[in-house]
UniProtKB/TrEMBL annotation:
It is a multi-pass membrane protein. It is found in: Cell membrane. The chain crosses the membrane at residues 142-161, 167-188, 227-245, 251-269, 281-299, 305-328, 349-370, 376-395, 416-433. It comes from the Archaea. GO terms for molecular function: prenyltransferase activity. The keyword Ribonucleoprotein does not apply. Pathway: Quinol/quinone metabolism; menaquinone biosynthesis. Keywords: Membrane, Menaquinone biosynthesis, Transferase, Transmembrane, Transmembrane helix. GO terms for biological process: menaquinone biosynthetic process; vitamin K biosynthetic process. Its main location: membrane. One of its GO terms (cellular component) is plasma membrane. This is PAS domain-containing protein.
């Protein structure tokens, strides 16, 4: 039944490749990574019969060194961007490694949900060397900048809803400052997790956990990461100092100092909050109330309860992204004495905690709308409930697995992103209509 649904969701190009391509291996896999269909070229490339391939996990085509980064990165990139295109090392049935050019595309059904992946693979003779820009984008974990951009948008949207005024340049500068501070925090996290040995101990990193791996893979030296995080934090702080001059008092200065402190001391000693069961709280506060209230204050020069209350769901959801990323890091974190919630409570209990927080997020939002604290149009966020259900279902079934949990990580990030976008849009539209 699942195979039929996946194959029926193939687009015209994917169907043509599966049915007619003779000069390459074409493999179709479900979201758990098990092969559901392949062409004769797959057997020629990997030396398996069709019957041997159907039902097996795609990890059999990868040497063990791919398990830590390349295979998870393949899944994540194909699911988030729609396409993974790279030259990597693969392995055939007889254990012979070879370079291969692989293009993996996502398979989407009529509801635009990803139901599977298709890989088209040929022999290759040289690996692609990443550019300097690509190396640093990896180190910065640029795709995750949405975690700070959306709260800035939300705080600005609430200000517009309340005042019907939008100040573009302060908004733009706030956004850029937060990107620099987030970049600095990401780099600092990599640097101090390297210094503690945590990332080196992690033999099962995924695209959502285990750090960027640029230090561990020898891509960028640790000392360069340290210089970069100091530079990013300094640039973000200077922008914050300017924003502080836009209004009387030092509210932005205090918020900025607290935000930078949270970003650095999440991993850095002597505080090292992520090692002392406080990392989740740091993330919830830093990516929720601090940014939302700060962005609102930049626009209005006022403090009131609405941005603070509206920041609570955002803080919880981004905290749950981190919380869920702790599952695959469980063993490495315990060895490095990194005491977070998951390795303190255990994975089974943590699944229940995930469900409680997801339920609370939507109940709190419903209370906000019913009490007229949040405008009616913010009810659009309830369109994201299916993503919450899917996330919980995947985690409940796969909490003790690595690769199988990756779709759950992706769903949690999608939930956080869509909730934030729809919540922000609700305030903007309500402000425009009032």
């Amino acid at each position: 039944m699942e195979t039929t649904a996946i194959l029926s969701a193939l687009n015209a190009e994917q169907k043509t490749q599966l049915e007619n391509k003779t000069d390459a291996s074409v493999i179709v896999a479900n979201m758990e990574g098990h092969v559901v269909a392949c062409n004769p070229g797959a057997g020629k490339l990997f030396s398996y019969t069709r019957n041997e391939m159907i039902g097996t996990h795609v990890r059999v085509f990868h040497p063990q060194q791919n398990f830590a980064k390349i295979l998870p990165d393949l899944f994540r990139t194909a699911m988030t961007t729609g396409k993974y295109d790279n030259v990597i090392t693969l392995i055939d049935k007889h254990g012979k490694e070879f370079l291969a050019h692989i293009v993996v595309t996502s398979i989407k059904n009529e509801k635009n949900d990803i139901v599977g992946l298709m890989g088209v693979t040929t022999h290759a003779y040289a690996k692609k060397e990443p550019s300097i820009i690509q190396k640093w984008l990896t180190a910065l974990r640029a795709p995750f900048f949405a975690a700070v951009i959306i709260p800035v948008f939300l705080g600005t949207a609430i200000a517009f809803y309340q005042t019907n005024v939008f100040l573009f340049w302060p908004f733009a500068l706030t956004t850029i400052a937060m990107i620099f501070i987030h970049a600095g925090a990401n780099l600092a996290n990599d640097y101090y997790d390297h210094k503690s040995g945590n990332d080196e101990l992690n033999q099962n990193p995924t695209p959502f956990s285990g750090g960027s791996r640029v230090i561990q893979d020898g891509i960028i030296p640790a000392k360069h990461i340290r210089y970069a995080f100091l530079f990013c934090l300094a640039v973000g702080a200077l922008m914050g100092v300017y924003l502080n001059t836009l209004h009387e008092g030092n509210i932005i200065l205090y918020i900025g100092l607290l935000g930078v402190g949270i970003g650095v001391f999440y991993s850095a000693p002597p505080f090292a909050a992520s090692y002392r069961k406080l990392g989740e709280l740091f993330v919830a506060v830093g990516f929720g109330p601090l940014i939302v209230v700060g962005a609102h204050y930049v626009q209005t020069g006022m403090l009131n309860s609405l941005p603070l209350l509206a920041s609570i769901p955002m803080g919880i959801l981004i905290m749950l992204v981190l919380f869920l990323n702790q599952f695959p890091d469980y063993e490495a974190d315990k060895k490095a004495l990194k005491r977070n919630w998951v390795n303190t409570l255990g994975k089974k209990t943590s699944v229940k905690i995930l469900g409680i927080f997801l339920l609370f997020t939507f109940l709190f939002t419903a209370w906000g709308i019913i009490s007229q604290t949040f405008p009616p149009l913010t009810a659009m966020v309830f369109l994201t409930i299916p993503h919450a259900i899917i996330t919980y279902d995947i985690v409940k079934k796969n909490y003790d697995k690595i690769l199988e949990l990756i779709p759950g990580n992706a769903e949690m990030i999608t939930l956080n992103f869509l909730y934030g976008v729809l919540f922000t849009l609700g305030f903007v539209l309500q402000g425009a209509l009032s």
